[in-house]
User: What shape does this take?
Amino acid sequence: SPEYKNHDFTNLRVNNKGSYFGALEEDGTFRLSIEGSELLDNPQKNVLELDDEEFQAYMAGENLRLDNEGKGIQVIKYNDHFVGTGKLSNNTLFNFIPKSRRAKEKI
Assistant: This one.
């Protein structure tokens, strides 16, 4: 874009190049980021659909107590949108939303 051609980028600090879609966990599982979960094409396994109340709590960074016997990394779905991943263990969904991206107000 022409307007950026003459911009001074000398003070721009870049941590990494590229896009972050997830991370390989120590146990060998791959945990998708919010953006990574959005790239999935209609996954059929390990998908948890949240209701309105659960979604609000999840976006606020809370771990959720659920009636679900599953375990491991789960893709979180809300109203036909994939909104990230969490780890399900002993009926608790552990939240992976970074503090900087958590909702401070009701969405």
